[in-house]
Amino acid sequence: MLLLAIDTSARATAALVRTREDRTEVLETFSTDQVNAHAEVLAPAIAGMLEQAGVSGGEIDRIVVGVGPGPFTGLRVGIATAQALGFAWGVPVGGACSLDAIAWEVAAGGAATSRFVTAIDARRRELYWAVYDDAARLIDGPHVTAAAEVAAHPVFGAGAGLYPEQLGAVGAEAMLGWDDRRPDASALAASAARTLNEGGELLATTPLYLRESDAKVPAAMLAPKGGAR
C-alpha cells in the first residue's frame, strides 16, 4: 500500500510511505518549521517528493492527513491540500489524530508504558494532549487544557518540554529526550496503515480545533509561561 501522509498541526510535514504487512518503508519526506508558509511550500514539496520517488499521484492508494488538534490556519492548509490532491488524483483521503504520530514513535522506540500521554503546544499556556496504551492506541482524548490538568502518566512530545514543573506537580512526568517531538508525517502514515490493515476506518477530515480561533485571544495569553520558546 502506497500512502501519502500530510500533517500541519505543529509544522508542515509530508511523507511518501510504502507499507507491506507490518513493515513500513519511507520513500521520501519533507518538513519545514516555516509555519507561516505552509500553503506556499507544501504542494510544491509534495510534487518534488513524488518526482524523486518516480511515483505519480494516481499510483497512491490513500492520502492520510493529520486533523489535529492544532491551530486553525495550520490545520486548514494541510487538510485542504490533501483534499485537493485526492480530488485531482482520484485517491481517497482519510484523517488521523496528529498526536497518534508521536505515540507511534514512542511505541516503536520501546519507550511506551502501559499508559502514556503525548502532548504538543496549544498556546494560551495550554497543551493539546491524549492518552495512549503501550501499543500506541488512543485511550482518551484529545484534550486541550492547562498542564496541571493533564493525566498522571509519562508525557512525551514538545508540550512536555514547555511545562515540566507543572506536569510533575500532578504526577505527569515530562520524558527527557522526547520533549521536543512534534507530529511527523511518516509516523502518522505508519499508524494509519495499521488501522487500515486491521480493517479499521480512518477519521473524517474534519479538523479537531477543540476551541475557538487564537485570533480572538489577547496576544499576552498566547506565549508559554516565561515567554515564547
Automatic annotation (TrEMBL):
Any one of the GO CC terms: cytosol
For this protein, the record's InterPro entries field holds: ATPase_NBD, Gcp-like_dom, T6A_TsaB
Describe the location of the Gcp-like domain by residue ranges.
Answer: 36-139
**Which superkingdom is the protein from?**
Bacteria
Any Pfam family the entry gives: TsaD
* UniProt-listed GO biological process terms: tRNA threonylcarbamoyladenosine modification
Designated name of the protein: tRNA threonylcarbamoyl adenosine modification protein YeaZ
